[in-house]
Amino acid sequence: MTSTRTAARPFGRTLCAMITPFTEEGALDLAGARKLAAWLVAEGCDGLVLSGTTGESPTTTDTEKAELIAAVRESVGDRVPLVAGVGTADTRHTVELARAAEAAGADGVLVVTPYYSRPPQEAVETHFRTVADASGLPVMLYDIPGRTGTRIEPETILRLAAHERIVAVKDCSYDFLGTQKVLAQTDLAYYAGCDEHVLALYAIGAAGCISTVANAVPGAIAAILDAFDAGDTARATELQLRATPLIEAMMGAGLPGTVTAKALLARLGLPGGPVRAPLLPAGHEADDELLARYETLTAA
Predict the structure, then answer these.
(1) Does the annotation count 35 as an active-site position?
(2) Is 170 an annotated catalytic residue?
(3) Residue 283: CB atoms within 10 Å
């Protein structure tokens, strides 16, 4: 069986939620970003998400976000789509970032639910429509209530799906039933935003994934979807389960994925650098555990 999902992949299939490299002094490391982006694409990613949660968007400036897009575009050219995180708690600021991302060369924008103010669903819907109307770029909704405090309810997503530029959803809702409901009733491209759901969501019709773990093992994440596309579901299951210990160490051990991804990249000699406050680096014990699980996965 060969997959027929290609037409429903507006931003690629195996996307990495790329970290934002910083120098040891804490400045934006554009040379490191170029190098890391090129490596991720060479190793199996066919799309990159910049300035998302893993990219430390709350602590990078508007100028840094635009510079990052331009630098990564210079590195990877037109080989893969670049999706720029532009979500903030302020609709006006989000609109400004969406327009800046378009000017800098992004192919789409990732827009998270406004956080802290906990807007009701009517306001959430109005926010997304306003941002989608503000530029010519396609929009990926980012549903991550564990961080924002507010869901994009399935009924709201169903209404937003009628907007011509709202084309995709990054799903970190942990509401599998709600996700299936939207998949069954719309043509929206769903991307698993939680690495433990890569195969499960793909098996019910998702377009792919946006993976934090792919910062360190892009090939291992791509291989899960490759196997499924080839019709070898048993192999896909095996590969998802094989990746689970590293997924757990990076995403489920009490540290943010940004912290664990940068810790592991440092041990692998890849660009990353420090995290920005208020985040703190992983300790030596966590570093060692991450490397051990990485080595187990890549040796298999």
Answers:
(1) no
(2) yes
(3) 11
